[in-house]
Structure formats: structure tokens, C-alpha cells
TrEMBL record:
PANTHER family found in the cross-reference section: NOP2 YEAST -RELATED NOL1/NOP2/FMU SUN DOMAIN-CONTAINING, RIBOSOMAL RNA SMALL SUBUNIT METHYLTRANSFERASE B-RELATED
Residues binding S-adenosyl-L-methionine, per UniProt: 245, 269, 284
GO biological process: RNA methylation
InterPro entries the UniProt entry points to: MeTrfase_RsmB-F_NOP2_cat (IPR049560), MeTrfase_RsmB-F_NOP2_dom (IPR001678), RCMT (IPR023267), RsmB-like_ferredoxin (IPR054728), SAM-dependent_MTases_sf (IPR029063)
Domain spans labelled SAM-dependent MTase RsmB/NOP-type: 132-386
Organism: Pontivivens insulae
Keyword vocabulary terms for this entry: Methyltransferase, RNA-binding, S-adenosyl-L-methionine, Transferase
Active site positions: 337
Protein name: Ribosomal RNA small subunit methyltransferase B
Enzyme Commission number: 2.1.1.176
Family: Belongs to the class I-like SAM-binding methyltransferase superfamily. RsmB/NOP family.
Keyword Heme on entry: no
């Protein structure tokens, strides 16, 4: 396929998203319907779709239309690419620009965040918001968590280099390596199969370390999902970790992942979870994922005010039910991959009003400006002796 034909394919996929399809399924459906497209074409088309999704609002403004065609035009303008080289009308390319489309729009270009969140983001980031906005328009770097139960960071960096992947250590996160490339093919290597590393953002690793799992004897990962934090908690503590999730099917990959990592994990149903038992209850709460929208831009496209409310209610419910399992003098680590106050400190404050036996000890916020995903964590201690 020519580069111009790839943009035309991306425009088709974006139209499907505008019509209500999810990003990944829309890309896959296009692939199934166009078997002739090779793997390089598919990858390039998917990259364009992701780039547009990261710039969902600004591309529509710059292309003067909320369609796939308009957003392709907007993306080209954002990148300073001459649009007439893509809108050629030749072969499978998009039709040439109309006189109307050739006119540059004069309206201000909006931030690439859901409009109903702009006020809260302005409160969080103040004058840094334009810089934050520019960061979320770009792809996120690829970080690895070294499985220190099996190897050291230096050895892994050497083995990765031999396998053709350049990775450098991040000074302030002792378990993290940052890849210089896209990391394509990394999970097909023997190094991955042997459990020497996991793909995990450096911010995520910092948040787990912040909970000090190495000081806990009994650890419950209350919202374990696919088990990313479970494995990190097990590696950092060197202990068996209990994994739980309200939706047990989300944990289906944990046994295999734990085996590969050499981690000890017990998966327990809600009904079997002992009360007042764990030194550390890690609550990786359901959230908007606003801190990781560079990786999952569909998350911001699909977020509605109703869904935002539902998520915040789910956070309170998770905190409330998780608190039953904390041992006296034990602690909850409440964590989100969100940069929004209303999912972070405001939730913790309302939790205190309800449960007066918990006190906040310390918290950590990470935002994109350190070029890692945005996270928040707060450690809440159970000061009850009962
Ligand atoms: C942010 S995801 C967890 C990601 C996971 N910890 C990881 O590192 O891969 C949040 C998880 O919380 C779960 N969840 C939501 N409400 C819950 C509740 N009340 N109790 C337990 N789990 C809950 C969801 O099913 C979802 O899997």
C-alpha cells in the first residue's frame, strides 16, 4: 500500500469509531476485511489511528470535521505534512481536498482531553496544562520491570542488547529499564518466556514500591485484574500474594504469568477472603486511566460524564469493601492510574469522613511531565486495635 492509501484506510477506521466502534476492534475488523494488506501496512495504519485517537479533539478542529477524513487532514496539519501529498485521489488515496477544506480553520485548537474534564485538569496542572496536553498527544515510552527474583537490571540490559533491544536504566526507579525503540517483538523473546521481565511503566513500578510491600508479611492485591501489580508486589516483597478481583475472569492470566515470573500467588474468591487479616491491602482502583491515555487513547474518547460518575462510585465501593480485610495496624495502599483529584485525594478525603479509624499517612502523585504515566497513591493506616 502507498502511504496515502494507508491514510485512507485509517480514515475508514476512524469513521467506524465515530459511529460507535471501539478502537482495537475497528482496526481488527478492517484487517479482516482487507486480507491483502501486509503486516507493515497494518501496523502503519494502526499507528495512524492511535495518533488520531491521542489527538481526537484537536485533529477534528484542525481538519474542520469530526470524520475520519477531517481527522486525517487535522493530523497532517498538526504534523506540518503537506496534505495534498496524501489527498491525491490516485489509486486508493483519499479524494483531493475541496476548496472549503483547503482553508485553514481559524478557531482555537482544543485540548485533547474530554471537554467536561478541562476545568478539573486546569485545577490540577494550572499553567502547565498546555505542556501536559502536548505530552498526551505523543506515544508513551516502553518501560520494563526487571524481575529481580530472577535477574539483575545490569544482566537483563546486557541480554536485551544481545537480542537487539537497547534499554537504559532509569535512575530513580531501581527496577526499571526504558527501551529506546518501540519494543516490538519483545514479548516473543526467550527472555520474556523465562520471566526475566514484565512490560510495566516506570510510574507503575514507583507506585508499587511506594506501598513498601517488603515491610508487609501478608499482602492482598484486592483489585488484581490481569495481575500486573500482583507480580510486582510478589517480586518486591519476596512473599506469597493473595489476588482478588470482583470480576474473577479478569484474573485468568495470573496463574501463567505467576509461573513465568516464579511468583507465588493465591487467587481467592470474595466469599473466602478472611477479614481483618492483611498487613497490606493494595487497592489498584478502577479509574478513568487518565494517567495512561497515551497508551490507551480510546479510554478518553469513550469516557462520558455518566461513566466518570460510575467509576468514582466504584472506587468508593472498592475502598469500603477492601477495608474489611486490613489487619489492625495494617494499611491500605489506594492507587489509581489517574491524574484527576476527584479520583485521588478527594476520594481519600471522603473515605475518611466515613471511616474515622483510618488516617492518611502519605501520598505520591506522578504526572506525565516526568515522561511516565500519571499515577496516584495514598497509604491509609488502620489505627484500630479491634
Ligand atoms: C485498574 S484495574 C486493576 C489493574 C491490575 N491491578 C493490574 O495491575 O493489571 C481495576 C480492577 O478493579 C476491579 N474492581 C472494581 N471494583 C472492585 C471491587 N469493588 N472489588 C474488587 N475489585 C474491583 C476491576 O474488575 C478491575 O479489574
Amino acid at each position: 500500500m502507498t502511504p496515502a492509501a494507508r491514510y485512507a484506510a485509517a480514515a475508514e477506521i476512524v469513521d467506524a469509531i465515530v459511529a460507535g466502534e471501539r478502537l482495537e476492534p475497528a482496526i481488527r475488523a478492517w484487517g479482516r476485511a482487507h486480507r491483502f494488506a501486509g503486516s507493515k501496512d497494518r501496523r502503519a495504519i494502526a499507528d495512524i489511528c492511535y495518533d488520531i485517537a491521542r489527538r481526537w479533539w484537536s485533529t477534528a478542529a484542525l481538519g474542520s470535521a469530526e470524520t475520519g477524513r477531517g481527522r486525517v487532514l487535522g493530523l497532517l496539519r498538526a504534523r506540518g505534512v503537506a496534505a495534498e501529498t496524501v489527498f491525491t485521489g490516485q489509486g486508493h488515496a483519499l479524494a483531493p481536498l475541496s476548496a472549503q477544506e483547503i482553508l485553514m480553520p481559524s478557531d482555537p485548537v482544543p485540548y485533547d482531553f474530554p471537554p467536561f474534564l478541562i476545568r478539573e485538569l486546569e485545577e490540577v496542572f494550572g499553567s502547565r496544562l498546555p505542556e501536559v496536553n502536548a505530552m498526551v498527544q505523543e506515544r508513551a515510552p516502553v518501560d520494563l520491570r526487571v524481575n529481580t527474583a530472577k535477574t539483575s537490571r545490569e544482566s537483563l540490559a546486557r541480554l536485551l542488547a544481545e537480542a537487539g533491544f537497547d534499554a537504559v536504566p532509569l535512575d530513580d526507579v531501581p527496577t526499571a529499564l526504558r527501551l529506546s525503540g518501540s519494543g516490538r517483538g519483545l514479548t516473543e523473546t526467550d527472555l520474556f518466556a523465562e520471566g526475566l521481565f514484565e512490560l510495566q511503566d516506570a510510574g507503575s513500578q514507583q507506585i508499587v514500591a511506594f506501598a513498601k510491600p517488603e515491610t508487609a508479611t501478608t499482602i492482598l492485591d484486592y483489585c488484581a485484574g490481569g495481575g500486573g501489580k500482583t507480580l510486582a508486589l510478589a517480586a518486591a516483597s519476596g512473599r506469597r500474594v493473595v489476588a482478588h478481583d470482583i470480576a474473577p475472569r479478569r484474573m485468568k492470566d495470573i496463574p501463567n504469568r505467576a509461573r513465568r515470573a516464579g511468583a507465588s500467588v493465591d487467587i481467592i474468591d470474595t466469599a473466602d477472603l478472611p477479614e481483618r487479616c492483611f498487613d497490606l491491602v493494595y487497592v489498584d482502583a478502577p479509574c478513568t486511566g487518565s494517567g495512561s491515555w497515551r497508551r490507551d487513547p480510546y479510554g478518553k474518547i469513550s469516557l462520558t460524564e455518566q461513566r466518570f460518575d460510575d467509576i468514582r462510585h466504584a472506587q468508593v465501593a472498592a475502598l469500603r469493601s477492601a477495608s474489611r480485610h486490613v489487619a489492625p495496624q495494617g494499611r491500605i495502599a489506594y492507587a489509581t492510574c489517574s491524574v484527576l483529584k476527584s479520583e485521588n485525594n478527594l476520594q481519600i478525603n471522603s473515605f475518611f469522613n466515613e471511616f474515622d479509624f483510618m488516617i492518611s499517612e502519605r501520598n505520591l502523585s506522578i504526572d506525565f511531565l516526568s515522561d511516565r504515566d500519571g499515577f496516584y497513591a495514598n497509604i491509609i493506616t488502620n489505627i484500630s486495635n479491634l
